[in-house]
Each structure stands twice: as C-alpha cells, then as structure tokens.
Design goal:
The protein is of the alpha/beta class and about 250 residues long. The chain is built from twelve helices and eight strands. The chain has an eight-stranded parallel barrel, surrounded by five helices. The protein is globular and about 45 Å long. Bound molecules: phosphoenolpyruvate.
C-alpha cells in the first residue's frame, strides 16, 4: 500500500548555520515523537546543505531530497547538478517541476520528463509537482491542466519506473499565499489524478502511488487535508520551523 509522505521544501532559504540548527531540531523532535511507521519524512534543503542534512539523516528516521536536477548527463554544463551526483550522495528523492521552476526558469513538461528520466536512471524517486495557476482554476481548467502535465511529464514511463514516482498536486494560487485549497478541492483533484494513473498503468499502480498536496499546508489544516486520496504534503514555509513540520507529519 502507498506511503504517507511529508516532504519539506526549504527553497532558497537558510544560512549553513541555520540549516544545521533546523536539522538538529528536526532530529531532536523525531527522538521525542515517533511518527507512524507508514509516514516518511523527507527534507529537501538547497544543494550546498545536502551533505549536512544527509549526515543527520543517518542518525534519524528521515530521507533527504534535492530540489532540482539537471536534465543532462555529467559534463560541460556549468552550474548544473546531475542525477549521478545526487545518486553518489545516496539521495533518495528529488523535486521536479515545482511551479517556481516552471514560472521563473522555463521548466516545461518536456524538461520535467527529461529530468524524471535522469532521476529514474540513477535510482532516485522524483517528486513531480503538478497544478494549475489561478486563471486556469477560475476557467475550470484544473483537471485538463493537470492531465496534460502528467501525460507530457510522466506517462512515457513504464509501469515499473512509474512506481518510483511521487506526485505533488500544488495549486499554484495556494503556494506561499496563505490560501489553501479546501479539503474537497484537494480530494477531488487527487481522485482525478489517481484515476488518470489507473487508466494509464492499472488500478494497482494507482493505489500504490503517493499523491501529496502542497500549498500553504500547516499544522492547523493538515489533518483535514490528508484524507483519503491525499497521502501527505509537500511543505514550503512551514517546513522551515521544526515544530510545524513535525506537527504536520503527526497529523495522520
Ligand atoms: C511549495 O513550495 O511547494 C509549497 C507548498 O509552499 P508553501 O507551503 O509555502 O505554500
């Protein structure tokens, strides 16, 4: 059966010292509170702090992920970080297709597909973000937007490779805005996503796929959001506070 996942996306925040303090706090809180066995915590810091956070993760029960990856193999691509490098650091997850990357760095569905391929090749689970912008929601196009993102970014994978994928539905109008989708809005679109996966790969694969919600998720609304097709959250702002992050994970 699918796993509950609460993944923290630190984005471009924190000094090295701040990252050290936050990870230490997460570790201490995990020593005090036992998460349910089926709930996995994933911490996604900026690239320069991956090793620091990974060192803590070897003592604690959480996984580490990157926030981005190159679509290319190693070589002359200044400033890029390859999936092979992430694999060599034993990272297990990597976010792909976040709306901020789509909006500010031109990450298209085709680029998402290429990055997903790199990650799969190097045994890293992609956390693939999909979601509509406000105008698309207002025009009632959220279902088709998300379907297109899935078809063009992911549905080229074999069923076996798709099993590695985690999906994060993040309505763009809810990210960092304090506006959260209602539990009904989240549930409706998660069920739609699971239905599309079932059509493409069969019900068993769909039932095993973790589909997270992201967008102003916090301890006060996590419990009502995580139900029944919503298998956890991709958490931005609230993941920068250890207590909020752990409280969200304890919401199941
Ligand atoms: C995100 O960036 O993926 C996100 C969900 O951010 P926030 O929780 O701050 O809305």
């Amino acid at each position: 059966m699918r796993q509950h996942i609460v993944a923290g996306n630190w984005k471009m925040n924190m000094s090295f010292e701040g990252a050290d303090d936050l990870t230490n706090e997460i570790k201490e809180m995990l020593e005090e509170h036992t998460l349910p066995k089926e709930t996995l915590l994933v911490v996604c810091p900026p690239f320069p702090y991956l090793e620091l956070v990974s060192d803590y993760s070897s003592e604690s029960y959480f996984a580490v992920g990157a926030q981005n990856v190159s679509d290319r193999d190693n070589g002359a691509f200044t400033g890029e970080v390859s999936a092979e490098m992430l694999e060599s650091m034993e990272l297990e997850y990597c976010i792909v297709g976040h709306s901020e990357r789509r909006a500010y760095y031109g990450e298209t569905n085709a680029l998402v597909a290429a990055k997903v391929n790199q990650l799969i090749k190097h045994d890293i689970s992609p956390i693939v973000c999909v979601g509509e912008v406000l105008e698309e929601r207002e025009a009632g196009k959220q279902f088709e937007v998300v379907a297109q993102q899935l078809v063009e970014g992911l549905f080229h994978l074999s069923a076996n490779d798709f099993r590695r994928v985690v999906i994060a539905y993040e309505p763009v109008w809810a990210i960092g805005t304090g506006k959260t989708a209602t539990p009904e809005q989240a549930q409706e679109i998660h069920a739609h996503i699971r239905g599309l996966i079932a059509k493409q790969y069969g019900q068993e694969v769909a039932d095993d796929t973790s589909i997270l919600y992201g967008g102003s998720c916090k301890p006060s609304n996590a419990k009502e959001l995580f139900d029944p097709d919503v298998d956890g959250g991709l958490i931005g702002g609230a993941s920068l506070k250890a207590k909020d992050f752990i409280d969200i994970a304890l919401s199941f």
